[in-house]
Amino acid sequence: MSFKNPSKETIKQVLEESKTIAVVGLSDKPHRTSYQISEAMKQAGYRIIPVNPTISEWEGVKAYRSLSEVKEKVDIINVFRRPEFLPDLAKEAAEMDVKAFWGQQGVIHPEAWETLKDTEQVVIMDVCIKVAHALYV
After folding, report:
1. Is this prediction's pTM over 0.85?
2. What is the pLDDT of residues 58-80, one digit of tens each?
3. Domain of 114: which CATH number?
């Protein structure tokens, strides 16, 4: 079976039921897309947890080096990394209790889907979370 994003209704439900987003690859540089999208989601009311080994914090929030280090409750894992990193991130995500694994626009990998398809996580890839939020919520 090949990957297909869930319905608009499912994406809307994930966004409405979620409060915390772990952002993998979140930059501390305001001109970067990951920063701008995360800032917009923060303004929309979500708590942002930065996951990036190259920064110590983002807007005063402690950054984690990897997903496996995050011990807080996370609803959505939002990935801003190149597609080749998705399979390993999906393996980490499969060990976590999260609602959704979300690859930003341009971030998609079939192995990530294969890893997560038997979990209860909603898998969304190649979709901008900010655009989805603007359209559906």
Report:
1. yes
2. 999 999 999 999 999 999 999 99
3. 3.40.50.720
